[in-house]
């Protein structure tokens, strides 16, 4: 019973507190707003996600052209790098296939039978001069320095050879002027042996001449060549001026 009266007393006190009037002076003032706290730190990077599945279209995989269109723009070209060292030379490759036929050349002009000059054009003639203080080298072709006539350029000063272009009958002759003995051959691919000419009079001024008529075909050659006859060693070593004139001309053509 005592417990019952104690509970009743507590309830009565509570009712008194809730139903009682409080004057204005019992209300507290509003509190001041708190300051903002410091920003929190960034979180740690998350783990890399799994690779996604390839994109698909309604009727199958994405077309390569579509993927290419989705790519970004190409970047600008970078600077050229330093050239690297030269590589080793490779092995020689095999022979290639033969090339095709070239286009036809322009139509040629007829110059007579056998590709040679016609008789009307065959006016072959030459005359050349050699002036030198040394003796013509023994056993060698005599060369010349100047040209008097060389109508068809059949004579070559550098080689000393006349090369026939117009087949026919020719006359060749030479004249040598010196203060010592001189020996010269007339040689031709149309001859089986050399034709030799010498002068041993040993006069103050000696003139040596020689000549021959030859039938030549196209391509055959004629030239002069010095040889050792009965000259003294002092004559071959002589350093006085010597002159040789070599001439030739077509008597009549003989087309092949």
UniProtKB/TrEMBL annotation:
Residues 29-59, 76-123 are annotated as: Disordered. Residues 119-256 form the C1q domain. Gene3D superfamilies: 2.60.120.40. Pfam families: C1q. GO terms for cellular component: collagen trimer. InterPro entries: C1q_dom (IPR001073), Collagen/C1q_domain (IPR050392), Tumour_necrosis_fac-like_dom (IPR008983). Keywords: Complement pathway, Disulfide bond, Extracellular matrix, Glycoprotein, Hydroxylation, Immunity, Innate immunity, Repeat, Secreted, Signal. Residues 1-22 form the signal peptide. The keyword Repeat applies. It is found in: Secreted, Extracellular space, Extracellular matrix. Residues 90-115 have a biased composition (Gly residues). Its main location: secreted. The keyword Cytoplasm does not apply. GO terms for biological process: complement activation, classical pathway; innate immune response. PANTHER family: COMPLEMENT C1Q SUBCOMPONENT SUBUNIT A, EMILIN ELASTIN MICROFIBRIL INTERFACE-LOCATED PROTEIN ELASTIN MICROFIBRIL INTERFACER. This is C1q domain-containing protein. It comes from Cyclopterus lumpus (Lumpsucker). The lineage of its organism: Eukaryota, Metazoa, Chordata, Craniata, Vertebrata.
